[in-house]
Structure prediction request, 434 residues.
Amino acid sequence: MRIAVIALGKIGLPLAVQFADAGHEVIGIDINEHAVALINDGVEPFPGEAQLQEKLAAAVADGRLRATTDYAEGVPRADAIVLVVPLFVDDASWVPDFGWMDTATASLAQHLTPGTLISYETTLPVGTTRARWKPMIEEISGLTEGEDFHLVFSPERVLTGRVFQDLRRYPKLIGGLSPAGAERAREFYEAVLAFDERADLPRANGVWDLGSAEAAEMAKLAETTYRDVNIGLANQFAVYADSIGVDVYQVIEACNSQPYSHIHRPGIAVGGHCIPVYPRLYLSTDADAEIVRTARKFNASMPERLVARAVSTLGGVEGMRAVILGAAYRGGVKETAFSGVFATAEALRSAGADVRVHDPLYSDQELARLGFETYTIGEEIDLAIIQTDHADYRMLAATDLPGVKLLVDGRNISDAVRWRGTPRIVLGKGHAAD
Prediction:
């Protein structure tokens, strides 16, 4: 097949490489000229994705994959087009911003030729494929969905850093606007993906047709919104456990020993491209989902809550030197999308602290571009807050942070022995310990 992949980011590029690795001709389309040039040289434009560099180099060398900024080069005569263009949500209004996706869809439609399968993999509000993309593509292209082309929704379900592993591990969900479109999508994904055997699934791993685009859209929103709501519940339990002197991690461990309990871990922040965003996409079409709204707001409040505990414990932080340990949204991943570092820094500055940031994955220059003054381990500091569960921070001791008066561990990764003699607040551990 001839396949076009639109948007060669941390999901789109591994997908393009996966399709090429399966033996197909792949053209990737992206507006970033620098990234396109690197890809055509067989060089990954971002680090951290397992197997990507070697697979990309092989696909480019064999002529199975190339990249371009020109839709006119990539779209015409494609058997299938897969879009993974970012969809943003306004932080204040929680309203989806379709700007980039509208532009990409319009560009695609201008060059669309008959016989093409179009699959959107970007997570969308329920109803978007049918109500927004179908009429837009038909109007611009002059073609008719279901006759001249087929349109489906098939959500990406992978985590950056392990995309190739997850593509094999999880069923590929599809939902078409017609049975014929769904069948085209099933044939396409079976030709480009291979699946691990999983005895734990109710049916064989592979391509699962959910019957409609709306069902597939909701499935992706539901599985990620569940995680946000679950973490919100865990955070609520942690805050309550702190107020009554109970270790919430022992409680959660005990609960989860029973097979019907699956409580997640609490934490100072829920970050990344998915979990903080997709509940808001869900809420954009289900305004009555108060459980979802409450959990999202509670999770967003966690940085401010932990900073408030630090201020209360120290009797104020005005003029104090504070370091946030970790800019990344999760350990081992060089990505700051919706990271708690931003809200934590804002809360500390509002309390009058002099804020610095440390992260072993980022250079001083990179942190400066994010708007942070940097901290070097070993410098004098008054307050430290663990925001990211980097492995490096598990071995951190009070002696590594001279003068530290309080550690706030928002991830429950610090070693009590290494912090003996220094006041320490661990979210969900019940009290400040020394």
User: Anything to note?
Assistant: The longest strand covers residues 2-6.
